[in-house]
Amino acid sequence: MRVLVLSDLHANLTALQAALDAAKGRWDRAVCLGDVVGYGPDPNEVAECIRKIDAFCIRGNHDKAVADLMDTEDFNPVAKAAVLWTQRALSADNMGWLKSLANGPQETDGIVLVHGSFHDEDEYVFTP
Question: Mean pLDDT of all residues in the chain?
Answer without folding.
Answer: 96
